[in-house]
Design brief:
about 45 residues, two-stranded parallel sheet, 2 helices, flat, Response regulatory domain-containing protein
């Protein structure tokens, strides 16, 4: 999920409880997205 929410916000806590397992803050860097995707694919 890509978001502009602050990491400590209530919405972020709700997202994590809902099962979101990867977050990328805006503005994001393509290398960061690749690293997140790679990490998620290794877990699969």
């Amino acid at each position: 999920m890509v978001t502009s929410e602050a990491s400590g916000s209530i919405n972020m806590t709700n997202l994590q409880q809902a099962g979101v397992n990867a977050l990328c803050n805006k503005p994001f860097d393509s290398d960061e997205v690749r690293a997140i995707l790679s990490r998620l694919l290794e877990q699969a």
